[in-house]
Amino acid sequence: MSNSPSLTVVIVNYNVRYFLEQCLLSVRRASEGLSVETIVVDNNSSDDSIVMVGEKFPEVRLIANRDNPGFSKANNQAIRKSEGDYVLLLNPDTVVAEDTFRVVLDYLEDHPRVGGLGARMIDGSGTFLPESKRGFPTPFVAFCKSVGLSRLFPKSRRFNRYHLGYLDEHENHAVDVLAGAFMALRRSVLDEIGLLDETFFMYGEDIDLSYRIVQAGYENHYLADTTIIHYKGESTKKGSLNYVRVFYQAMIIFARKHFQGRRARFFVSMLQVAIYLRAMVTILSNVFRAGILPLLDALLLLGGLFVLKDFWGGYHFGNPDYYGRTFMTFNAPFYTAFWLLSIYLSGGYDRTATPWRLVRGILVGTLVIAAIYGFLDQTLRSSRALILLGMAWAIIGTIGLRMLRQLIRSGSLRFGLPGPTNLAIIGSQEEASRAKMLLQRAEVRKKYQGVILPEETGHATENPAEVYLGTLSRLPDLIRWFGINELIFCLGDVSAKQIINWMDRLGSRMTFKILPEGSESIIGSSSKNTTGELYTIDVRYQIATPANRRNKRVFDLLWVLLLPIWAPVVALRTPGKLPQLVRGWGAVLIGRKTWVGYLPVQPGDPQLPALRPGVISFLVNTGNGAIPDEKTRRRLNRQYAKEYTPERDLRILLNRRF
Fold first, then answer.
1. How far apart, in whole angstroms, are the C-alpha atoms of residue 197 and residue 256?
2. What pTM, to 2 d.p., does this model score?
3. Pairing with 16, which of 104, 395, 516, 538 sits 20 to 30 Å away (CA)?
4. Domain range enclosing 622
5. Contact 264, 256 (CB under 8 A)
6. Where are the beta strands (DSSP E) in 59-205?
């Protein structure tokens, strides 16, 4: 032990308590028989991460910051206090295999010119993460990535040098850039080149450090001999404008630091253009994803009404041109708008919209149209029959459109109704029973198939009420026989290495989750583009449901329209607050704010569903006017999110004394 190399594992955490717990359990296992110290730097989390580490991992050295100084500065805090011959920068949303640290240390000992070492990474669906190995972002490399050439030609040596797509992911390679999610560094090299550049708050610091390692004459290697899980991947927030801004600003910092003269100016200018181009693409893609289905519905309904007016005119009146131009310039857009609005309010544009939501929305819209029809001027009353025919076409057309869309996507005509989830638990009888209990308490409604034992044991005869499907060695057969498409691994019974190997082998056709030892949450992520999924006994928030989020937005817009009635009341009761109301009106209209929001807390509560800033808070009356302390405000916020209804917002606005 005294002659063996020592390793310091540094984990920077910010509000990912459940992932951190799982990560530390895997680190504990991987540290057995080695000289390893683990340091967690918490950047002012508000999700009880610090309490969890103190209670469950007493061997971990904890640095608790009172603010969020950023990724680089937090890592440097730990490195300065570390003692290992090697330092591993590790993300909290990772799982390492039991032999990962030994494999890494042996490789570094055998390759003294290697200053930095990365590992092969897969996401929570078992898909290889290309950011495991990268090239330096030269102007041409950055250009190819920015305009999408690297995605069009993923195996090209010329166009995909950013992710080095031409290098085999299953072989070890010398590479330019390592990922900060798993970055093993030689202490002597850090002493020579310096620590992470704290100018980088987030993103870019790993590229900068990798570049300085190579500039100092050392090598960075990609190690395929060990594989880890990295749940989120670098693509977690690529759909957000903030990601685009932060990522490319980091690239600009890198360019200004390491390039000189015309090359630097060209690179910076190109990156600045890329920021606007990517931001524009992000906005357009987000608008397209949100608006393409309503737009297709609108075209479908308008086209159908155009055909129906000619059909009904010819059939009933003997004249296809019986209905004049007014029908297509007023009636058809009027009917279409109400049907689309009703579909939206019924949840027909939710990601999991069912045929019934469409039918319900169209029926309600038809009733509204019929009610308004009687108040229209006689010249605008085309025909009740066309309303009914249009309703029938709207139902058939919108459902047919979604069936066609689903057929193109997945080869199935079913939409809105998730396919059957056949779930199996891999673990011992005790851990499987605990997993089932957590699933029940979390109200997870999936078809439970049974338990798959890690190995041949006598457990199968101990509980006749339990369904034992077989052993882990027969997993592919069991999946096929029982139609299993979701697996929960019990980390207390199955090694992390086995889990990683099975995820790698089975790939994205399965959904994987892990139950850490002693944890009350089952953790997983089906895509590198999601932030992770939890089956947890934590409270469920009503404000997070698609229906209530939609209702809140509709409520906001209704109160925007009611401002002429509302404003005089506020002016009479509290005239000094009227400017706040008027300013809030515009922000709510464009979607930057909501009328009723959370109480202000610092730095925020990641456990709560995201909500736009409120023009006012939901706290109507604090009794003697006292302001609740931070802890009480957090508790009140959770209560508001848990019990949210539009009626509650209405009561708050009616009772609020601005």
1. 13
2. 0.76
3. 104
4. 542-655
5. yes
6. 61-65, 86-90, 94-95, 114-122, 173-175, 182-186
